[in-house]
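User: Please predict structures.

Assistant: First:
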Amino acid sequence: MLSRKGIIPEEYVLTRLAEDPAEPRYRARERKARFVSKKGNCNVAHKNIREQGRFLQDVFTTLVDLKWPHTLLIFTMSFLCSWLLFAMVWWLIAFAHGDLASGEGTAVPCVTSIHSFSSAFLFSIEVQVTIGFGGRMVTEECPLAILILIVQNIVGLMINAIMLGCIFMKTAQAHRRAETLIFSKHAVIAVRHGRLCFMLRVGDLRKSMIISATIRMQVVRKTTSPEGEVVPLHQVDIPMENGVGGNSIFLVAPLIIYHVIDSNSPLYDLAPSDLHHHQDLEIIVILEGVVETTGITTQARTSYLADEILWGQRFVPIVAEEDGRYSVDYSKFGNTIKVPTPLCTARQLDEDRSLLDALTLASARGPLRKRSVAMAKAKPKFSISPDALS
């Protein structure tokens, strides 16, 4: 039925029906859980936290970290609860002073035009948000009413400052700016300047710059110490290189950041075959900088698993000069091409440099051979008729 609807190809259905039930089935190897997702979120679940009160010691940060539905709920309930609380206080003052009793000739009330809890609630809203419709007001009859008026104004200002500050911080969080900082979907390993290099591309989609941008990289893998201690997330910093030098980058146009795989690199013994079987390897890239428009420090993160690293490929150029200015074609941001690369580890390449020399010679002969073939195809062919020879 599914094949008739086009959901499953018919060839697949026939193959499944023709299977031998006695034949053993092999399940695919489960993919390694990421420590950092491609979008930069940390894949860590905090469980069994006993000291929950620590979060209440920093209420503002806790409110900012909450999700939007919870923040809006707290925002609304904080005002409603304060209005209801002071409405009850105003109603009790009016009740104690006898202002709720109807009739003429009564004494001057503490608050005019309060006859029920509804009118006390409306007066509480008018006081806290400073509306002042003019129908209700505090008189000089009750000093306690004047004190409550001062207290409610102070409490209202504090709630406004905390809630509005929380909303502002949530809308201007640093990770919002990181949405326009992009990384290439795959990383590549190829030869650059005679050495094997791990390369990736980073770019910024906005025209506003990231000031003092720095980039760093870590390798996260499961290791075991000589004493037998298992470290599930062993983090190792490795240096990154770029065209400017050092970790600082000038991110006006997309840049190719690379790491030279030398004897100090954790990738020194990484071979092409390990990219399909090295399930414990994860490379985390962190880009930090100051947002030019807001002055807030932002951070963008991504990670590459072993099967997301392409061996023997290189990023295609995407920056070109057009009409006196440089243009960037982001449609080719993650495109790569195959390049001659030795199928060995960096250690083996350092021990036997003849592998690189042979590769360089082969890559040099390639363009010459293509050029000679092109010239042979373009060479005109002349035919001489027998009449011309006679």
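Second:
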Amino acid sequence: MGFLQGVLVLVVIVAFDLKSALGSLKHRQSPSSRKPHSASASRVPDLSSQGFLSPFQKASQLPSLDYRKFAQDPLGLQEKQLLQGPVKPLDWKFPVVPEVQRELAVNFQLRKPVTPSSVAVQCSEDRVHVEVKKDLFSNGQLIQPSGLSMGGCAVVGEDSASGVLILEYALQDCNSVLMMTEDELVYTFAVTYTPVAFAGTPITRTEGAVVGIQCHYQRLHNVSSDALRPTWVPYASTEVAEDVLVFSMNLMLDDWSYQRPSNLYYLGDIINIEASVKVYNHVPLRVFVDRCVATQVPDVTSVPRYSFIENHGCLVDAKATASSSHFLPRTQEDKIRFQLEAFMFQGGSSPSIYITCTVKATLASAPSDALHKSCSFSNGWLAADGNHQVCACCDSTCGPEGRRDAPVGGVHWEGKASLGPVMVQGRQKTLTRLQ
């Protein structure tokens, strides 16, 4: 009897174990077990319908667990997709700097100066009387009496009403040269003008000149005289230009419509200069010329040098030399224009002039102030934008040098721009005979 009970219990256990194994196999082969959301469940052992492992299940029948893979990938595929979410493609590109418009052909003709009639001569029986206009070159620049002489003899008088300087000496004085021909006696003199630099500056706006004067006497006739017309010997004077904020300076035509195709000027001419800032991908800006220095070579530290805009936008040339140099009223926020009378360095070894300027830009919405202004002198200091009170400091100090102060309305940007060489010629001088 005991033996039969044992066999019966063994058969029941085998049947139960077989049923459990068949159920696990069906579960592995069912389609739902292959879905992504049940992937995490497949990593744990199969449970019986009562939720417990069979105590007689063999260890070899348990699904193997890859704990290293589980540690590396603790989240399932679905959880990863939920965490990452959709990724928006990048649409940013580097900004494209627009092409600079090609220069248009400009109908430009350089106006050559006309020889002025500014020296008059009267030859008497034993003396020569010479009158020289103070505006010797007919360019508005008055010569200094100390620079004028005739054969080493100085000016003896001045007619202020007529604006002339007077030299009068005996025919045998002032290193005169006597020549005799078959019919004439000829006394030759040389009236020399040596330009004098403006007080406190190394520049002059007049060319040196030598005017030949001759008094002709007929051996058997009366004394005659005539006026002479001086002409000129050439000289010279200079031009070059420059972030994504780009500062630049250009020479312009008289009507400011285009860049000037020639860099050649004559003494007494007006040089039109336009400073600008290009505002690629930027808010509107207002440009200022902070300071400018003229030199004979590109090195801004070389000597001689002439600072004609200083003190944060004060164009001091007009006050220092009584010139007509000035800023023009502003017509565009990103451009500022000014006119500079042509000049040259006295006794300079080079005919070239290089102009180097510090240019600033502020937000167009920011008001001008003592450190950001464009002031000209004409019986007082005047601002190009009409805010004249910001120019009150031009005769003193408008701010510490080297300090980069921002305007009242915000920040500013600063850069360098230059021109060079700009050629400024004098006028050719020739010797003219009296008949």
